[in-house]
Design brief:
With 169 residues, the protein is an alpha/beta fold. The chain contains eight helices and five strands, in the order βαβαααβαβααβα. It is globular, with a radius of gyration of 15 Å. Bound molecules: shikimate-3-phosphate.
Length: 169
């Protein structure tokens, strides 16, 4: 049997990328980022894909990349926050993976995402409203993950430790 992947899902700003890299180092697994695969495939940044080709196109490429990443083994897969919106993505990623959702409250998310301008969905006039609406619209999708870790009050190392406990049990 292939070594299982660990798939991190969760809203923007919940720490997926930082945690996935630290987790991969700790468990000596490969790090795979669906957003990086999308940018490589399209030869442009996510912000440019959204503005030049539209969100629908981004989601179609994201689905292809999710299927491709799902074929990995022994990888920590860092996904984009909206990957959960298509059930087929999660179904594919779950075939050889444990899906862990990182969570944080809207205030933490806003603070953590305020410094970066590369997220088109939050690069809007009222990011607070966007975060609240998207969190509400996606709650049921994030709820389908196999496990949840609230990262609000935890350091990166503590989140990594929790995930290691989850996957070893
Ligand atoms: C998105 C999250 C982003 C990226 C894109 C869309 C989303 O990834 O995939 O901007 O729909 O939540 P991060 O969650 O890594 O910021």
């Amino acid at each position: 049997m292939d070594r299982k992947n660990i798939v991190l899902v969760g809203f923007m700003g919940t720490g997926k990328t930082t945690v996935a890299k630290a987790l991969a180092r700790k468990l000596r697994m490969h790090y795979v980022s669906t957003d990086a695969l999308i940018e490589k495939r399209e030869g442009m940044t996510i912000a440019d894909i959204f503005s030049q080709k539209g969100e629908g196109h981004f989601r179609d490429i994201e689905a292809k990349v999710a299927a491709e990443a799902a074929g990995s083994s022994g990888a920590v897969i860092d996904t984009g926050g909206g990957i959960v919106m298509r059930n087929e993505n999660i179904a594919a990623l779950r075939k050889n993976g444990i899906v862990v959702c990182l969570e944080a409250g809207p205030a933490d998310i806003l603070e953590r995402t305020a410094r970066a301008a590369h997220r088109p969905l939050l690069n809007v006039e009222d990011p607070k409203k966007a975060v609240e609406e998207l969190l509400k619209a996606r709650a049921a999708h994030y709820g389908k993950a196999d496990h949840r870790v609230d990262t609000s009050a935890l350091s990166v190392d503590e989140v990594v430790k929790k995930i290691v406990e989850i996957v070893r049990n």
